[in-house]
């Protein structure tokens, strides 16, 4: 396959309302059966599904993994969360998972898409322990020092710093490892950092046909406002340097503390595409 020429890098900062340019979080919403997407998002998402038919299954596996890691954090006594690149709120939101088990649990979502932010604001209206920040995670100071974050979260206590799938959209030019380190270094000892990405390592070994389809998917996202940056297991593992990994370490998403709720997806081709792990700080 010929090497593609990627589109120019997008500037850092919150995005204004734009229904004509396909957006990754709205496409993700569409894969999950949501209604907060526009015609441009649906059109490109359908192209993506033509190239990689298991794209919706991968989205469901990622959403299921998010639920499991949040519950794992709660099991470890974590009661406050910063969800970086949260996307459009959908079924099983982090604050719903948290506050069902701990009504005093606190959650701050961060996303730069105005559609995600405006919808989250409606959902969170009247919830004193949850908020959404309209910011770009590639500018960590604008996130970490924001009043919404400083008011709700106590950085002197352990928290769950969620980076579920978001590094997929961070180009190497923005130093994803450095971003992870910046966020990590602001967290108190005992904090937990769940991270996940899409990788080609496992699928290339187990399912060559799907491997070729993923390469096609990367090209499809050249027409979206966010591009895909698929990374190897070794590079991903380095993001956890200095952290203590929780069992079972870095594995494909359906093998991370499975609970049987995504049985069909867990055994299909999508199982090899996403990997994740959770590290403890300090």
UniProtKB/TrEMBL annotation:
The organism's taxonomy opens as: Bacteria, Bacillati, Actinomycetota, Actinomycetes, Pseudonocardiales
- List, as start-end ranges, the regions of compositional bias called Pro residues: 1-11
Q: Which InterPro entries match?
A: SAM-dependent_MTases_sf, SAM_dep_MeTrfase_SAV2177_type
Q: What name goes with this protein?
A: S-adenosyl methyltransferase
The ranges of region (Disordered) come to 1-21
Sorted keywords for this record are: Methyltransferase, Transferase
GO biological process: what's one of them? methylation
Q: Is Calcium there in the keyword field?
A: no
* Keyword Methyltransferase in record: yes
SUPFAM superfamilies xrefs: S-adenosyl-L-methionine-dependent methyltransferases
């Amino acid at each position: 396959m010929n090497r593609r020429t990627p589109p120019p890098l997008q500037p850092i900062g919150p995005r204004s309302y734009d229904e004509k340019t396909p957006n990754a979080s709205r496409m993700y919403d569409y894969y999950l059966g949501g209604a907060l997407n526009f015609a441009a998002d649906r059109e490109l998402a359908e192209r993506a599904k033509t190239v990689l038919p298991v794209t919706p299954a991968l989205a469901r596996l990622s959403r299921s993994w998010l639920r499991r890691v949040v519950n794992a954090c709660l099991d470890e006594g974590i009661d406050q969360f910063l969800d970086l690149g949260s996307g459009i709120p959908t079924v099983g939101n982090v604050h719903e998972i948290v506050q069902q088990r701990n009504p005093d649990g606190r959650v701050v979502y961060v996303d730069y898409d105005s559609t995600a932010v405006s919808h989250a604001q409606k959902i969170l209206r009247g919830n004193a322990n949850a908020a959404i920040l309209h910011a770009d995670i590639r500018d960590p100071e604008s996130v970490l020092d924001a009043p919404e974050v400083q008011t709700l979260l106590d950085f002197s206590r352990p928290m769950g710093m969620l980076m579920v799938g978001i590094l997929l959209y961070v180009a190497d030019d923005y130093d994803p490892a450095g971003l992870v380190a910046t966020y990590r270094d602001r967290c108190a000892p005992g904090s937990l950092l769940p991270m996940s990405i899409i990788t080609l390592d496992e699928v290339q070994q187990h399912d060559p046909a799907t491997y070729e389809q993923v390469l096609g998917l990367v090209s499809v996202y050249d027409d979206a406002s966010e591009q895909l940056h698929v990374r190897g297991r070794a590079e991903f593992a380095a993001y956890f340097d200095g952290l203590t990994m929780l069992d079972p370490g870095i594995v494909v998403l359906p093998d991370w503390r499975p609970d049987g709720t995504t049985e069909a997806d867990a055994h299909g081709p999508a199982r090899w595409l996403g990997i994740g792990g959770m590290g403890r700080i300090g």
